[in-house]
Amino acid sequence: MNLAEIETFLMIVETKNITKTAETLFVSQPTVSHRLKLLEEELGVSLLIRKKGYKQVELTTYGEEFVPIAERWLYLWQETQSLKEKQEKYYLTVGCTDTLNSAMMYDLYREMLDEADRMTNLRIKTHYSSEIYHYLEKHEIDIGFVHHYLHYKNILAEPLLSEEMYIIQSEQPEIEKEEIHTDELNKEREIYLSWETDYQIWHNQWITKGERPRMQVDTFELLFHLLSGKGMWAIAPSTVVERIQKLKQIHVSKIANEIRPPRRVTYKVTHKHMSEATLKAVQMLDKRMELYLKKKGWKTDK
């Protein structure tokens, strides 16, 4: 059976008349009869009762039973055609640290959400860097962005972004200078985020000197809200600085220490063994990310 035969049969069911069916489909009456005959021969049953002297036709018992089958056949054919016309859709689960989601990735997510074609479905999960490696290895996420390079047998880690660190103070800064040495600042007023291992070592050598930071946080939101009191300060990478500057007034200074803190490196992590669909989705995000970083003017590590 084919589309023409099914459409012809369903039109006969609707009009109950061969002539009207031919007129509606813009074909001849013999064509309608021929299509119906081929359909009946393939099914091996009679679908219509044709009475001499009557314009209307009636369905046989088989014909009545075949109506819902023909309707489902036509629906599936239409779905198949629709599938051909649709653009390929991407489904991607992304794992990021809190500050990456809130600062670096935020505008990219907004751009993708506002796209008219809606080709991409994103599921965004927030975890610590070590957790992202774990979930990626178990295929619970498709791609991750982290601050730590860890060795996993099946995980590929690629440097993506390198950022300079800055001192940021509340809108009521203790010191208003373009460059500040950390010794000039009150360490009791610092809001400390542990950006990555090398930074922790630098911070211990130059600021806490073996002591525990008085206020340590692990989310962008806490940093943002706590950086409101007079004299409060923190050290943050450029993406975080730019994001906070969009939301409120802060004072930003370069770090004048003899040894400056190491640049924060963001790594893109993927599994060595991805399905074809996941690989296409990851490649799509790679292209978007490359354009996004270039537009932002952020220094990549490529």
TrEMBL record:
<keyword id="KW-0805">Transcription regulation</keyword>
<dbReference type="InterPro" id="IPR005119">
    <property type="entry name" value="LysR_subst-bd"/>
</dbReference>
<dbReference type="Pfam" id="PF03466">
    <property type="entry name" value="LysR_substrate"/>
</dbReference>
<dbReference type="InterPro" id="IPR036388">
    <property type="entry name" value="WH-like_DNA-bd_sf"/>
</dbReference>
<dbReference type="GO" id="GO:0000976">
    <property type="term" value="F:transcription cis-regulatory region binding"/>
</dbReference>
<comment type="similarity">
    <text>Belongs to the LysR transcriptional regulatory family.</text>
</comment>
<dbReference type="InterPro" id="IPR000847">
    <property type="entry name" value="LysR_HTH_N"/>
</dbReference>
<feature type="domain" description="HTH lysR-type">
    <location>
        <begin position="1"/>
        <end position="60"/>
    </location>
</feature>
<dbReference type="GO" id="GO:0003700">
    <property type="term" value="F:DNA-binding transcription factor activity"/>
</dbReference>
<keyword id="KW-0804">Transcription</keyword>
<dbReference type="InterPro" id="IPR036390">
    <property type="entry name" value="WH_DNA-bd_sf"/>
</dbReference>
<protein>
    <submittedName>
        <fullName>LysR family transcriptional regulator</fullName>
    </submittedName>
</protein>
<dbReference type="Pfam" id="PF00126">
    <property type="entry name" value="HTH_1"/>
</dbReference>
<keyword id="KW-0238">DNA-binding</keyword>
